[in-house]
Amino acid sequence: MSNALIDTAPDFSQPIAVLKHCHDRIRKQLQTLQNLLAHLPKHGADADAQKAAQAVLKYFNHAAHLHHEDEEQNLLPMLQATARGADATLLEELTPAILQGHQQMDRDWSIIKSQLELIANGSSAALSSEDVARYCDAYAAHMAVEEGNIAPMAKRLFSEEQMAQLGSAMQVRRGIPPALPYSQVPEQQTQAVNPTVADGVVLADLRLDYGRASLTEHDVLDDPIAQFGKWFEEALQAKVNEPNAMSVATVDADGKPSSRIVLIKQYDQRGFTWYTNYDSLKGQQLRGNPHAALLFFWSELERQVRIEGSVVRTAAEESDKYFYSRPVKSQIAAIASQQSAPIANREQMEANYDAAAAVSGAHPVRPAHWGGYRLEPVRIEFWQGRRSRFHDRIVYQKQADGSWVKERLQP
Ligand SMILES: Cc1cc2nc3c(=O)[nH]c(=O)nc-3n(C[C@H](O)[C@H](O)[C@H](O)COP(=O)(O)O)c2cc1C
User: Fold this and answer.
1) What's the domain range around 300?
2) Is residue 253 in some structural domain?
3) What is the pTM of this model?
């Protein structure tokens, strides 16, 4: 029998084709394994059998592992970082089985390997047909899932840049100089992949070094409020956790800073609006110094937005409009709470709530100490995480004539 395997691998500029080529080579080696199974009872561990066993050993001991690593460390994490909607759901379903499949095949391989090593040196002709069948069937099913779902998804979703990253990572894994500069090649993961990814932790970890998107001077909008709107919509669509939560940093009379999370309720050309208690700590600090800094962090999109400017109170009508749009119980809570002032215990707070509810009835009136603040921005910076901590930052500065000038900052 012959193990000649002379075929030409596709170029790493087409990494998905390379992965398919790997599958074809796996299929050939599995065929050799099955041929060997048929050969051994008739011919024993003769020279052809030894040669076949050596070839199968060589392939599955080395090349197959590189292929699994390509998938576990690059292809799947990149897809996880890119897929949305139905693609993301399908990926969530398939990924644990793919990772478990790799581990199961590794275990099956170690059983077959010990039999092949004896055949390869001519000392045994025993090869278990059950072990071979289990290994071949597992690989066939595994490759069908990857070729039917994973590869087409990658071809559809990956940009040219992502394809180049994937191809370069695969080259580096094989000791080949990458097509991209090393700074742009996704870092190799050093930790083994845990197949139990139900909580998403493992793949979330793996994706950390992948640039989800880029941000250039040319693809940001000229108007930073419109650019913020674009990113905010994308955060909503991506269902990031609390997309409207932002940190508000203020300073006290001595210039000492403090920050807290509030929810943005409106943004427009005038600025960014939230609602709170004017007598709270932040309220007192803003009275003394109206300068503040807002911060959004949308971790799932690897994005941060920093906004700085001065803060004004919203008009009473605007505060009324929002106050009366809230559930009555929230209105009563706003009346009952002297936000940021100490209180003895929870019971006292409940008593204050009951008293406010008794006075307010079904129609509470907005108290003068509760309303909106609007930060009028003079500086807005958009930060997009990129590979190897070589991030993109574009900052907009407001000019005296009201126009915005943008420039890139170093990461
Ligand atoms: C997710 C989240 C959303 C919040 N939203 C608001 C809000 O919209 N307005 C508000 O006054 N406090 C909000 N808070 C509470 C503030 O973080 C803070 O405790 C409160 O405003 C008092 O801050 P201060 O003592 O610095 O004034 C929120 C807290 C969290 C964690």
Assistant:
1) 224-409
2) yes
3) 0.59
